[in-house]
């Protein structure tokens, strides 16, 4: 079934209710369209419609552009979809941040041990946006396991999108025997929040035709980021990636190698075959586990200090060493977070000049890892403007960023 065959307006068909929303054409002349389909009529109790059941009923929505081909299906409960779709309509009208597809710096090819993977076709610089892509399937954690619902949601995709989705690896888990759920389980990235509303912190699992091809490495060279303002997933290079190198992300952020391997086994039913683990000696593993634990400990301690009247006495030299460990372990979000929290701690202790120095480190790291549109960058900027205003009021010349 193609969404393009549906007529505008509300219509009932086979127990499903469809209503279509046309969104205004965007600058490029392309109009996005979201179609919401409630899978089951909500049940009536004593002749009265049951509102709770209506909101919890399985629901999916398709997204198509001007050609009418449904290139995305969004599945969850009616309540979840009603919460996120008004924001999604707005986000999907915005073009992807990377514009033209042709300049992509990677190819999909056979990896040594992990099936298909992504490979750099030229030098990709640290902080570069490698790819931005809309998900093909966005599924809530509460997606219905009912086979007839999942059949309908999968059938709602256009033939091309469905064929590409079905080409992704399927989970071998017997509980996830449906082709839709099996593919979501091992190819999706946890994505969210879906809206700007802090009360609606709904997280979805996003599965992509290209992004989902990236293999795991315990120290991946790229970072996945969900961009809620455009409803797309992105990979940013965490460091320079030479031509020919495989582009990898970390599927798990567990601190020790043993915990990461256990997580890989539990979710993906496979051993970790990553290059970092293959190359590491037992001594490397011990050192890496220790460094990661220390980075996490300092990050968490700085975080709790924000809400306490006690000011931690950690020196700038120690903080610098922790940042080096974070960089070595590829923990670039922790790196940025530590620099940001250090700046806030040092505002009280050392004053705005030192705080501003650390804030610049944080901003640079956030932009490199998450992109300049990330929410974290806007938070850093608020503090940057505050500190520069304080300094300017004292007659000093400072600008931000
Ligand atoms: Zn590994």
UniProtKB/TrEMBL annotation:
Annotated ranges, domain SET: 104-252
SUPFAM superfamilies cross-referenced by the UniProt entry: SET domain
Region (Disordered): 1-22
CDD domains in the record: SET_SMYD
InterPro entries reported in the protein's UniProt record: SET_dom (IPR001214), SET_dom_sf (IPR046341), SET_domain_protein (IPR053185)
Top-level taxon of origin: Eukaryota
UniProt xrefs under SMART domains: SET
PROSITE patterns: SET
Protein name per Swiss-Prot or TrEMBL: SET domain-containing protein
Organism encoding this protein: Rhodofomes roseus
């Amino acid at each position: 079934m193609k969404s393009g065959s549906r007529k505008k307006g509300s219509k009932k068909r086979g127990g499903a209710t469809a209503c279509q929303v046309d969104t205004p054409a965007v600058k490029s002349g392309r109009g996005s369209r979201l179609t919401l389909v409630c899978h089951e009529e909500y049940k009536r109790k004593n002749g009265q419609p049951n509102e709770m059941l209506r909101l919890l009923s399985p629901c999916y929505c398709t997204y198509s552009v001007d050609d009418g081909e449904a290139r995305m299906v969004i599945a969850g409960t009616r309540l979840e979809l009603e919460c996120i779709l008004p924001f999604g309509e707005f986000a999907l009208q915005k073009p992807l941040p990377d514009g033209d597809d042709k300049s992509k710096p990677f190819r999909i090819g056979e990896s040594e041990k992990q099936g298909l993977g992504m490979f750099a076709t030229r030098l990709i610089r640290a902080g570069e946006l490698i790819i931005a892509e809309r998900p093909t399937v966005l599924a809530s954690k509460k997606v219905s396991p009912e086979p007839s619902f999942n059949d309908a949601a999968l059938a709602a995709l256009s033939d091309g999108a469905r064929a590409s989705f079905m080409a992704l690896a399927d989970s071998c888990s017997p509980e996830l025997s449906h082709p839709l759920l099996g593919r979501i389980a091992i190819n999706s990235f946890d994505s969210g929040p879906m809206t700007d509303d802090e009360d609606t912190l709904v997280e979805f699992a996003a599965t992509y035709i290209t992004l989902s091809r990236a293999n795991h490495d315990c120290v991946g060279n790229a970072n996945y980021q969900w961009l809620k303002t455009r409803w797309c997933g992105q990979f940013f290079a965490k460091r320079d990636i030479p031509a020919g190198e495989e582009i990898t992300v970390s599927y798990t952020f567990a601190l020790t190698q043993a915990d990461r391997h256990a997580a890989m086994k539990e979710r993906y039913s496979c051993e970790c075959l990553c290059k970092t683990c293959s190359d590491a000696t037992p001594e490397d593993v011990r050192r890496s586990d220790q460094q990661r634990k220390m980075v996490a400990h300092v990050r968490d301690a700085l975080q709790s200090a924000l809400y306490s009247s006690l000011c931690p006495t950690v020196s700038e030299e120690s903080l610098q060493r922790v940042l080096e460990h974070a960089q070595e372990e590829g923990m670039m979000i922790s790196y940025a977070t530590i620099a940001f929290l250090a700046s806030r701690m040092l505002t009280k202790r050392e004053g705005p000049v030192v705080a501003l120095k650390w804030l610049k480190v944080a901003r640079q790291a956030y932009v490199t890892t998450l992109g300049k549109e990330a929410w974290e960058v806007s938070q850093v900027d608020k503090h940057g403007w505050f500190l520069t205003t304080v300094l300017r009021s004292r007659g000093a010349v400072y600008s931000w960023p």
